[in-house]
Specification:
The protein is mostly beta strands and about 180 residues long. It has helices spanning about 30-35, 165-170; strands at about 1-5, 10-15, 20, 25, 45-50, 60-65, 70-80, 80-85, 100-105, 110-115, 115-125, 130-135, 145.
Length: about 180
């Protein structure tokens, strides 16, 4: 397993070991002890899976505020997507900076997103499926979004006319968010 720090050092790209032969392939998707050695010292309590039907769909930017903030371990199980992570920690030297990484069924990469970051993605293929682990349970009261096109963040999603949910269309800009990081 190879763990690579991105431009924002807390965001980690994980390239798992994949063992392939004539039958197919095998990979370990998570081991607490192994990941802890690379600084991912969280206990995941819930797995979430989503399917995005149409290429060009943007989901995010999402996060949960305290006391139910979440770290995530994200991977692609079908198709491919560009995963985007934005630093929303007000005192951070990388505040409002973002990282984008392509995750796909083919590359099998994972992305670790710690608390204090907003997360979103754009589907690059129809029928893209995503699996992610979280270290706290979903809380409707703490669930928050930031506009995907916030000009202070300026994420380059690589698409025009994205498909969005009503929730994401009406999300506030970061300056109006009640983020508590």
């Amino acid at each position: 397993m190879e763990v690579i720090k991105t431009e924002i050092s807390e965001i980690l790209l994980i390239k798992p070991d994949v063992f392939a032969d004539n039958r197919g392939w095998f990979m370990e998707t998570y081991s607490y002890e192994r990941y802890k050695k690379f600084g991912i010292d969280v206990m995941f309590v819930q797995d979430n899976r989503s399917r995005t039907e149409k290429k060009g769909t943007v989901r995010g930017l999402h996060f949960q505020k305290a006391p139910k903030a979440q770290s995530k371990l994200v991977t692609c199980t079908r198709g491919r997507f560009m995963d985007v992570v934005v630093d929303i920690r007000k005192q951070s030297p990388t505040y409002k900076k973002w990282v984008a990484v392509e995750l796909s069924e083919e590359n099998k990469y994972q992305l670790f997103v710690p608390k204090g970051f907003a997360h979103g993605f754009v589907a690059l293929e129809d029928g893209t499926e995503i699996l992610y682990k979280v270290d706290d349970f979903y809380s409707k009261e703490c669930d928050r979004s930031i506009r995907f096109d916030d000009p202070e963040i300026s994420v380059d999603w690589g698409i025009e006319n994205p498909i969005l949910s009503e929730k994401d269309m009406q999300a506030p800009f970061l300056a109006q968010s009640d983020s508590d990081f």
